[in-house]
# Entry
Amino acid sequence: MTTAQVLEPGQKTADSRAAETEQRMTDDERFSMIISIMGATGGLIAVRDERIPEDVAMSAGYTPGVPRLGVPALRSSDASMGITNPGYRPDDPGATALPASIVVGSSFNPDLARDGGVLLGREARIRGFNIMLAGGINLARDPRNGRNFEYYSEDPLLTAVLGAEAVSGIQSQGVISTLKHYSLNCNETNRHWLDAIIDPSAHRESDLLAFQIAIERSEPGAIMSGYNKINGEYAGGNRHLLNEVLKGAWGYKGWVMSDWGATPSWEFALAGLDQESGVQADAVFWKAEPFTDPLRKAYAEGRFPKERLSDMVRRILRSLYAVGADSWGPAPEVDMEAHNEIALKTARQGIVLLKNDGILPLATARPLKIAVIGGYAQLGVPSGTGSGAVLPVGGYAGIVKIGGPGPLGRARNLYLFPSSPLEELKRLLPSAEIEFDPGQTPAEAVLLARRSDVVIVFGIRVEGEGFDIADLSLPWGQDAVIEAVASANPNTVVVLETGNPVAMPWLDKVKAVIQAWYPGQAGGQAIAEVLTGAVNPSGRLPITFPADLARTPRPDLPGLGTPWGTPTAIRYDEGAEVGYRWFAKTGNTPLFPFGHGLSYTTFAYSDLAVDGGETITARFTVKNTGEREGADVPQVYLTEAADERRMRLLGFQRVLLGPGERRQVTIEADPRLLARFDGENGRWRIAEGRHRVAVARSATDPVLTGDTRLSTRLFGS
Ligand code: BGC
# Structure
């Protein structure tokens, strides 16, 4: 926990300091703190707002400080994958563009999440940003969600562990981080008008559990609410989720900020919202800035209590003090080379080898003729699009304007980071003959494929904020190119650079498939290293790849294709049975399961011991049984609870082992993962009886199983 305070004698707590400062404020000062003003991008907000001083650089948010009380201005920037800048600061020299969060998810490596967080904190500090709008931890419930690349996984535990490490890393640098988007902002379709419907107890066992665990572990200074409604109430005005669950049951002490343009009413302040963000966006969408004039009016007329206004301000101050954002010393040194190494290491560990019929790693003993096809691989690697897109140092290798309907259409671009897989392959394989074909048409691509020993074909897809993808296919005829190339040359390897699962109609025809996601500024290098074996792949899928949408909880996505502004309800009737849990429940076989990922070595598991009591502890041994060093990610699942079939990831560990090396792994389950949430009592309940666990290579590949009996108990909140 980064923000837990160790107090010197006589030192005040963040709470008491916040109370003292707030008490000395005027009402004008209080009101000035509960809004944040958006910088001009030239897009939605065309002109600089006069409330932002001339010498303040543009970014997602600005809130004036109160200098006479030593309160700094709040300056916030996106997001989880780097300090974003497109539009806001044309002169910004560029920031480290980390791999997408789903790559961190695939690494199953909390240390990488933390390193990335520290990096973000430092690069934020040198720009004067004291709030990072990072920590996107929505669960990947739907493989069409355009923002899944900004999130970690479909599993609450994996998501919470990684999200918490990222937030802790950021906050260790004196920069506040959010966790967002609270909650159930799991689709982008009509997100301002989207009502996400879910059973409240199932919500507690899934998306809310991810927030609960991540909050406990990292104490984020702020929580950003989502755009959507949950069970009929907007996230930012959802009394149950904000006042009762977050601040009540969980005792959260930081502040809740809205998403940008997600506050239609001042009354959200009564329901638990502490700060209105991007006020001008509210003026565009809802024709008012509710926390300025309307809230002041309600206050003057006695409809909005003073105590609540003070509470909103105290919460903001408390986070500033707890994280140390008010007491910065000199800005830290930023070593961009070292930051590139973090981006590279994350990509190396997050790339997933999905299929390998012995073709990889590429043989280097003889000079191969290699065809590299498609995906702009001669230029770089794609990034996801939207508010999280980062401009890397030196600029993009290319921008392809994509566009689309609705207000976010103009911000939808294919951004290419200049780490070219083609050039990196040439560097690693100097004696190979490597040629490139853009993959424009099947007929043309086949010409090169036919005269090559090996074909590496890239499949890319632009995904991002404001858009759900309509189906799982690759755009621009890429599936047809892959199909044709694989028919022309059996030695075909596919590298996918997407933010979500992909349908693979050509899967049986190709020898290997690599899921590289959006691998960040060093992604081309990492891809080439995995292909050649310089790096032994160790990524595992953090999201189930369905064979098709018919096997997912929502074969048809409500509202998809309706014009911006159409009220839409999505029923998340799968409840807590998200992703692999759904496939286990329905007995469907996925194309590739959650947790799956191949290596160039092999691992064996043995000696499982399962202990019960308050929770379940599993101990087992992992051994590298192959010829080369590699990292494995054994996973422990609950498969039965009190004789009822139920899949829950209880824990995982990334283990790096040399050939022949073995290590004992101990996983202790968070008891909430063994329990069901009892809505009537507002507590967690473990059922009496036999509980079975499996040590597995993936959600569908159990290797060892063991049981223990647990007694019934009611606990927590
Ligand atoms: C996004 C947030 C982001 C905010 C500020 C919104 O559109 O949903 O994730 O932090 O913009 O840029």
